[in-house]
Amino acid sequence: MRDFPLFLLYALLKPLALLPLAVLYRFSDGLYIIIYHIVRYRRKVVMDNMSACFPDKSHEELEKYAREFYRNFADYIVETIKLLHISDTEIKRRMQFENVELLEQLCAQGKSIAVYFSHCGNWEWATSITLNVRHTENTDYCQVYRPLKSKTFDALMLKLRGRFGSLSFPKKTVLRDLIIRRKEGRLTVTGFMSDQKPSHGDTTFITMFMNRPTAFIGGTEILARKLGLATVYWDMEKISRGRYRIHCRLIDDGTFASEPGSITLKYAQMLQTTIMRNPPIWLWTHKRWKIPVTLPSP
Fold it and tell me: Is 65 a residue whose pLDDT tops 60?
């Protein structure tokens, strides 16, 4: 009985997942109308964020960005449901990875990796990286997540995120989990969604980002330095509807020749480049700048 809500949710979503994406996108079109025009889900947050980040854009241009964002957001929802029933062949055709040799080379050198990622495109599909790399028996592909308040939805998302064999570590225990893997003689390639607003008590680094002083989560870099992890950025772009590409870009090879904070700041610069290339693919509903911050004195 404890798992009944999850079973019921799964039973409701599974028939949708069985439909081809071409059909699901018709649902997405209707969902866009509901969340943008009827419910108006966080439209003020989105417009406030965009207007501050793009002060040179007209109201009409910002509204165009917003409409495109909500269309992408609706696509993200149905594409995530599709993870309940999508073949390895189809996801590999729709989710491309470039320069995965970088990950393979770092692992061949005995280095575990912290992957900086963001809420761009469809980040849930990125777990299909396991289908695009040459596997070694001692390497785990993982992602860090913040548990949802709803245990039912949390269990569903964990199921979806493990669809291609990756492991999920709660944010609170990720350091311990990675240390355990290391003691077991295993390498890890772990994704960190580092573009969210830092939680209370998190170490932060403040920099100019999208035309605004912005606090970035510093914990990813601190953990990487503590464990000697190489750091890589996954640069995601949307090629067309239902087709994405991630290019793996090196941030630091684990030698840490630069000063503390430099890895986080480099990630912020890379993320800004990704967003500026196609602004609507980022998750603009985040209350990213809810608490104003100021740049540190030079």
Answer: yes
Helices (H) and strands (E) in the chain, counts: 10, 9
CA distance 219 to 116: 12
Of 34-38, 87-91, 132-136, the range with the lowest mean pLDDT is 132-136
Range 17-37 average pLDDT:
97
Is the confidence at residue 1, as pLDDT, over 50?
no
The model's pLDDT over 187-210, given as tens digits with 9 standing for 90+, comes to: 999 999 999 888 877 788 999 999
Greatest C-alpha distance within the chain: 59
Tokens in use for 88? 């390895």
Helices (H), 135-261: 151-161, 174-183, 219-227
pLDDT grade for 152, boundaries at 50, 70 and 90:
confident
Going from N- to C-terminal start, the domains of the chain cover 4-281
Measure CA 84 to chain center: 19
What is the arithmetic mean of pLDDT over 54-65?
Answer: 97
**279 neighbors 50 (Cβ within 8 angstroms):** yes
117 token code pair: 């990622």
Give the side-chain half-sphere CA count within 13 A for 154: 10
For residues 128 and 98, is the Cβ–Cβ distance under 8 A?
A: no
Burial classification of residue 173, based on how many CB atoms lie within 10 Å of its CB (0-12 exposed, 13-18 middle, 19 or more buried): exposed
DSSP string, 76-122: HHHHHHHTTS--HHHHHHHEEEE-THHHHHHHHTT--EEEEE-SBS-
Closest CA to 263 of 231, 223, 219: 231
